[in-house]
Amino acid sequence: MIESVDYSICPFIKENMWFFTYYDFCDNRKVLKKMYNELDKNAKQFYKWYVYSNIHMDLTYKNKIWDYLNGFDEGSELLKGKQFYKAR
After folding, report:
1. Are 59 and 74 in contact (CB under 8 A)?
2. pLDDT value at position 8?
3. Which residues contact 47 (CB under 8 A, 6 or more apart)?
4. Which of 56, 84, 57, 61 is nearest to 73 (CA)?
5. How confident is residue 65, by pLDDT bands cut at 50, 70 and 90?
6. What is the phi-psi region of residue 81: left when phi exceeds 0, alpha when psi lies from -120 to 50, beta otherwise?
7. I need a labelling partner for 57 at 20 to 30 A (CA). Which of 19, 29, 42, 83 fits?
8. How far is 18 from 2, CA to CA, in rounded Å?
9. What's the angle, vertex CA 8, arms to CA 16 and CA 57, rounded to 5?
10. What is the rounded average pLDDT for all residues in the chain?
11. Using only C-alpha atoms, what is the Rg of the chain?
12. pTM for this structure?
């Protein structure tokens, strides 16, 4: 059996950029996006790893977060996803 590892608390990511569920991210999206935009290229790549390592959501929601952070969505798709999201 393969165990999932929860990287929601990651010492390599600033604590104020942590999120645990899709709801957490959506509720703090503007602040998280502002901080994300201030990261250098390597830090953004590492944050991508952090987003996609989250065990509390399916890939669909991780993609919505990543699209939002990178300007492919202004937030409408991100917020639409909130109504269907159920934390694992």
Report:
1. no
2. 56
3. 13, 17, 36, 39, 69
4. 61
5. very high
6. alpha
7. 42
8. 25
9. 115
10. 86
11. 12
12. 0.84
Tokens standing for 55? 């065990």
3-state secondary structure 5-71: CCCCCCCCCCHHHCCCCHHHHHHCHHHHHHHHHCCCHHHHHHHHHHHHCCCCCCHHHHHHHHHHHCC
What is the residue whose two structure tokens read 């899709």?
A: 22
Q: What is the DSSP letter of 86?
A: -
Query: What residues have CB less than 8 Å from 82, skipping those under 6 apart?
Result: 22, 23, 26
| Nearest by Cα to 36 from 44, 27, 28 | 44
Which residue type does 4 have?
A: S
Cβ pair 78, 64 in contact under 8 A = yes
Residue type, 5: V
For residues 52 and 4, is the Cβ–Cβ distance under 8 A?
A: no
